[in-house]
Design brief:
71% helix, mainly alpha, single chain
Length: 191
């Protein structure tokens, strides 16, 4: 009777631990919890898991299984961030038919940036952050720098466009502020 009760607790725990998200660090935590050492291989025997006496620690084993799953999600997200941002490049486009090239991110890359910033922020909310904290902080900083650079570029280009329309294309401003208009035109030619 007692053995059957143990098996009723043990079987779901085995299912939990058979998840591919289980890593060596999780197995080490289990062994430390149980005070037993087993060799963890893809061919681990049910007997070895039974000998760990997992049935004595069902909630802790479930917590370790949950940690493995949540950390795996973070691993996948970090790998995705690496893959995406290795490919993203600023694009260069001619400014109003001139040979001056303007640099910017494509619209879909800006959308991806915003989505990725939310994903990174969500990882900070996880109680399982500690394993990947350094990488997540690195991604938070990098994505913030990309966003800031893109925003600054947009602001500079918008301001320059405004000044160009004002000092070069407005005859009224040229009459009212001839020195400033000429100075801006000289700077604009240099750029």
């Amino acid at each position: 009777q007692e053995v059957i009760k143990r098996w009723v607790v043990f079987c779901p725990l085995v299912a939990e631990l058979s998840d591919p998200s289980m890593r060596g660090r999780h197995w080490s935590a289990l062994m430390s919890l149980c005070g037993k050492n087993v060799e963890v291989t893809p061919d681990i025997l049910l007997r070895d898991m039974w000998n760990m006496e997992l049935h004595k620690f069902p909630s802790e084993v479930e917590d370790i299984g949950e940690q493995a799953k949540q950390e795996y999600k973070m691993e996948v997200t970090i790998a995705k961030l690496n893959r995406i941002w290795m490919e993203v490049e600023f694009v260069f486009e001619p400014h109003k038919g001139s040979n001056v090239m303007l640099m910017r991110l494509k619209d879909e890359d800006i959308e991806t940036l915003e989505e990725n910033q939310v994903q990174v922020q969500n990882m900070f909310a996880s109680r399982f952050l500690s394993t990947f904290e350094e990488e997540v902080i690195g991604w938070q900083k990098m994505l913030a720098q990309i966003a800031e650079t893109s925003t600054l570029l947009s602001e500079v280009l918008r301001t320059w466009d405004f000044l160009e329309n004002l000092f070069i294309h407005s005859e009224e401003v040229k009459k009212e502020l001839p020195d400033e208009s000429e100075r801006f035109a000289d700077i604009d030619d240099d750029v």
